[in-house]
TrEMBL record:
InterPro entries: ArsR-like_HTH, HTH_ArsR_DNA-bd_dom, HTH_CRP, Metal_resp_trans_reg, WH-like_DNA-bd_sf, WH_DNA-bd_sf. Keywords: DNA-binding, Transcription, Transcription regulation. It holds the Pfam family HTH_20. PANTHER family: ARSENICAL RESISTANCE OPERON REPRESSOR ARSR-RELATED, HTH-TYPE TRANSCRIPTIONAL REPRESSOR CZRA. The lineage of its organism: Bacteria, Bacillati, Actinomycetota, Actinomycetes, Kitasatosporales. Residues 241-335 form the HTH arsR-type domain. This is Helix-turn-helix domain-containing protein.
Length: 335
């Protein structure tokens, strides 16, 4: 269990940021041979394992995963909110030699001769360049095709969480974070196989939504200004090539509304955009938009704008309809 004590300054400065590289790193853990990914990742993992097995450029990543559990931030830089992985890869590639040596000294004292550590001391610039190339090869083979959908999922998550924080406060933000995070003010507890305690001090908290957070829990405490924690973004089912169809038998909601409109309604466990729903269902955005317009006219869903995006959410009528005809426990509003 990881326990992070947060003071008022840290909580007040909480931010949320996207990181394609953090998502890629977590997915590496999920692609390990001993792992049995849950359904959303089953199709993806076949290709990811093939890339790791057959592309020799990924060797530094395999060493990273098999190496010590704790590692310096330069191997996985703090997210800066970039939506292009190239920005983060450039940060890895251009790490100054003194930063590499300081990170090795802090995290790998006594392990200088470890085959995983030795290259970073012998040739810091070269080792960082090889690590960046390994990330790039893995990204190209296993992640790039999925990133447009993943990006939309995490961008939706950032907007929804930011709205929750702004309108309901930090308690609401943490309470709805995910099952592996527990908020007992002023301590945030993270389920992990190691035990550690940290005090944020004057550092601000940075939350990072990840589609592949099932792979591992990430947290970073090296930065003197920022304490970073990852969490699971919703909608990982969009990674499936084809969403699972519900059986027609007994689908009273589908019989009443039509299968397409019913499937759209079932996605609205939390606020989503038209494009976000389309990603999850594998439908054209225009088709989803047509269904949403009809549902909004029937007062089953409501719409609200955040920035340039329009989000749809179940009304009380919509939640009651799902509960009565689908047996789904959605009567409580979702922030």
């Amino acid at each position: 269990m990881i326990r992070i004590e947060l003071d008022e300054a840290s909580l007040g400065a909480t931010r949320i940021a996207i990181s394609p590289l953090w998502d890629a790193f977590c997915s590496l853990h999920l692609a390990m041979p001993h792992r049995h990914p849950s359904r959303p990742y089953e199709e993806w993992v076949v290709r990811a394992r093939e890339v790791l097995r057959e592309d020799d450029r990924t060797h530094p990543l395999r060493l990273l995963i098999d190496g010590p559990h704790q590692f310096p931030d330069f191997m996985l830089p703090r997210p800066v909110g970039a939506t292009a992985v190239e920005t983060e890869l450039n940060a890895v590639r251009t790490t100054p030699a003194d930063v590499v040596r300081a990170g090795i000294a802090e995290h790998y004292a006594g392990l200088e001769d470890h085959p995983y550590v030795r290259p970073y001391l012998a040739d810091p610039e070269g080792a960082c360049a090889e690590l960046a190339d390994a990330y790039a090869a893995y990204w190209e083979g296993a992640m790039a095709a999925h990133w447009p959908v993943m990006r939309r999922l995490v961008e939706d998550e950032v907007l929804i969480r930011a709205r929750t924080f702004a309108t309901e406060g930090i308690d609401a933000l943490f309470t709805g974070l995910e099952s592996r995070a527990k908020w007992q003010p002023p301590v945030l507890e993270l389920t992990k196989h190691i035990d550690a305690e940290y005090r944020a001090g004057e550092r601000r908290l940075l939350l990072v939504p990840l589609v592949f957070a099932e792979g591992c829990r990430l947290y970073s405490t090296d930065d003197p200004e920022v304490l970073t924690v990852s969490f699971q973004a919703r909608g990982a089912g969009a990674l499936r090539e084809r969403p699972a169809e519900r059986a027609d038998s007994g689908d009273r909601l589908g019989l009443l509304l039509g299968r397409g409109r019913a499937s759209v309604l079932r996605q609205l466990g939390g606020p989503l955009t038209t494009a976000g729903i389309a990603d999850r269902l594998g439908l054209a955005p225009s088709t989803v938009s047509e269904h949403l317009s009809a549902l909004a006219e029937a007062d089953v869903v409501t719409r609200h704008r955040i920035g340039r995006s329009v989000y749809y959410q179940l009304t009380d009528t919509g939640r009651a309809l799902l509960a009565l005809l689908s047996g789904e426990d959605v009567l409580r509003a979702v922030s």
